Amino acid sequence: MPNAVSAGKSASTVDGLDAVLWDMDGTLVDSEKLWDVALYETAEWLGGKLSEQQRMTLVGSNMDDTSAYLLEVVGLPVTPEAIASTGAEIRRRTAGLFDDELPWRPGAREALTAVREAGLRSALVTSTERVLTELALNTIGRDFFDVTVCGDEVEGLNKPLPRPYLKAAELLGVDPARCVAVEDSPPGTASAVAAGCTVLVIPNDVPVDAGERRVFRDSLVGIDVPALAALLG
């Protein structure tokens, strides 16, 4: 979704860097802990229990895949109707948690501000659905992004497939090869790499394997535009 506030602003390029594409959960805000609560409670609502190890496999997943996995874990039939009702319960529980101000990841707000002040194009690329993303944006701020791409806006071709990042680049009018994506999860990192981006990986709850076009940092603290541009080599 284009951001009307930033539409019409002239865009800059810094040392070959045209845009920064940001993941949300676990990268900008520490919302994965809130997803923990919603998923554990939904598993109990379904009559079962989700282990910590099982929960970790869902980091970066989309709503339909998450719902199907929960049904499998608790031993219930995985039908379209069951996926829909489970997804609705997850949304209900998560919305209540996202209504409050979300905790920022270290350095995230400052990094977003640096990119915006430099005039670089910026996109939010998340597996979270639009209705929940809008709640999260009440904390993060919509003005940081020229476009936002949510998990229910990519024709079912969610991370780790490249479509979310390709769509963000298309909406921004940039070449993915001239973009840096910022991610924390294996599916998100794989998605951005497959789209052609260089990825700044800030691991959070789940380790991310080393690989092509992946640069690792412990946090976003001290990350500015020259540092992001330098990642493109």
From TrEMBL:
Pfam families, sorted: Hydrolase (PF00702)
Protein name per its UniProtKB record: HAD family hydrolase
Source species, domain of life: Bacteria
GO MF terms held by the record: sugar-phosphatase activity
Sorted UniProt keywords: Hydrolase
Listed InterPro entries: HAD-like_sf, HAD-like_SPP, HAD-SF_hydro_IA, HAD_sf, PGP-like_dom2
